[in-house]
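Researcher: Please predict.
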Amino acid sequence: MSKLTNKTINYRLKATDENGVLQLIDDLADVQLPSIEKITDAIKGAGIMGEIDLPVYGQIGSMTFTVNNRADNPKYAILSRPGAIKFEVVWINDVFDSTNIAIGTQQNKVFMIGFNKKYDPGKIEVGAASDGSSEFEIIYYRKIVDGKEVLLIDKLNYKYVVNGKDYMNEIRAALG
């Protein structure tokens, strides 16, 4: 059976307020999930033709989460606050089952913890959207697809888990 993930049907974003309660952040233009980029170091020398920009095993660079909004509203103020903010992003994709010639859906959830590093309420112009944005440094990222955890990155607890395999388990054990 072949399933082809197509487009996002809809999504929602929640973020914790100053009391730690998840609040719906509505009226968004879009969100950009963090890119997971490995820290690399170029190696070269005898036995290598040229150089290789080799990733450092299990080490992940800065992960930035961006929230883009059409117009600033009172809910966006909680995104500007100092301290850790927890996020929950849920989106639904339509999925085409090519074997049964049928359309279905796929639920995706991402849970993140991050710190605000930029709050831009946008511009003010007659007859135009404000086009503001907020950026966050993410230290915890967990993705669930149709109820199954497919990715967990917990920078402070040294975890990098893909489809149930913890790639940092031996490193944590060796460090004691």
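Model: The chain has a mean pLDDT of 93.
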